[in-house]
Amino acid sequence: MIDPSAQIHPTAIVDPAATIGAGTTVGPYSIIGPKVVMGRDNVVGPHVVIEGITKIGDGNRIFQFASVGAQPQDLKFRGEPSELIIGDKNIIRECATLQPGTTGGGMITKIGDSNLFMANTHVGHDTFVGNRCVFANSCALAGHVIIGDGVIVGGLSGIHQFVKIGDVAMVGAGAMVSQDIPPYCLAQGDRAKIHGLNRVGLERNGGTREDLSALRKIYRTVFTPTSPEVVGRSFKERVAVARGLVGSNERGLQFVAFLESSERGVCAHHGTKGAGAEDA
Questions:
Q1: Catalytic: 87?
Q2: Which end of the chain is more exposed for a tag (fewer CB within 10 A), N or C?
Q3: 201-279: same fold as 7-144?
Q4: Which helix (H) or strand (E) holds 246?
C-alpha cells in the first residue's frame, strides 16, 4: 500500500505490494521491491535499490546508489526469507550496502536509530548495530558483527566477522579489528589494539567523573597491570580482580561484563604481544 501523501517520481519503480508510509518520497529511477515496508517521512534519493524483506522505520534518508536489502554475500545463502530491519532517523549515504540475515545468524540484520553510514560503507549479514553510531567512508562490517550504542568507526576500517564492539568505543581510521573492543575504549592499527579510554565519547554520552574513575580502575587493572596483586596473573584473573574494584558503578559493571562475556577474545593493549584474552 502506498500512502496517498507519498511522492513517487514517475521514473521510479515501486512494486504495488510494497508499503510506503505517509510523507515518504522516492526519487528518480529508484526501485523498491514487493516485500519492502517503509514508514513515514523517509527520503529515498535517485537510483536507490531497496529489496528483500526489508522493514524501514520513520525519518530515514537514503542517498543515491545505495543498495538496501539485497541478498547477503554468503555462499551458503539459498534464498531463505531473512530480514533487514532499520529503525528511525538513519542516514545512509552514497553506495552504502546493507544486507539481511542468514540461517547461520538468526535470519535478521538489525539497525537501530540515528546512525550515519557514510559513502561506501558495508553492513554484512546478521549484523546488529545500536543507536547513534557513525561509520566513516568505506568501512566494512563483516557478518555476525555486534556494534553497541554511540560507536564511531573510522574510514577504511574492517571489522572481522563475529567481533563485538562495546558502547561508546572508537575505532581509528584504517584499523583491522579481529577481536572484541570493550566499551569506552579507543582502538587502532592492523591488527587493532587498544590505546586507552574514549574519554571524549564518554563525556558526550553523559559519563560522569565517577564513571571515568571506575573505568580507569578497570582499564589499568586489566590492560596495564602494575600492582603485585595482578602482575603476572591471567587475563581472566585480572578481570575478576577488576570486578571487585567496580562497586555499583553501572558503566564499570558494563565494562567488566563485556570482558567476561567475550568469546572471540579482547584486543590487547598497544605495546603488548598477542591478544588480551590469549593469556586467559
A1: no
A2: N
A3: no
A4: helix 235-246
pLDDT of residue 103: 95
The residue from 52, 101, 112, 143 that is catalytic is 143
Cell digits for 112? 537501530
Residues counted in the chain = 280
Which stretches does DSSP call E strand in 114-169? 116-117, 122-123, 128-129, 134-135, 140-141, 146-147, 152-153, 158-159, 164-165
Residue 12's nearest CA partner among 33, 26, 24 is 26
Whole-angstrom Cα distance, residue 275 to residue 270?
10
Give me the residue label for grid cell 530480514.
Answer: 83
SS3 label, residue 52:
coil
Is 74 an annotated catalytic residue?
no
Domain residue extents for the chain: 7-144, 201-279
d(CA 35, CA 51): 7
User: Is residue 125 among the annotated active site residues?
Assistant: yes
45, 113, 124, 125: the active-site residue: 125
Q: Which CATH architecture has domain 201-279?
A: Up-down Bundle (1.20)
Among residues 126, 149, 180, 211, which one is catalytic? Answer: 126
CATH superfamily of 7-144: Hexapeptide repeat proteins (2.160.10.10)
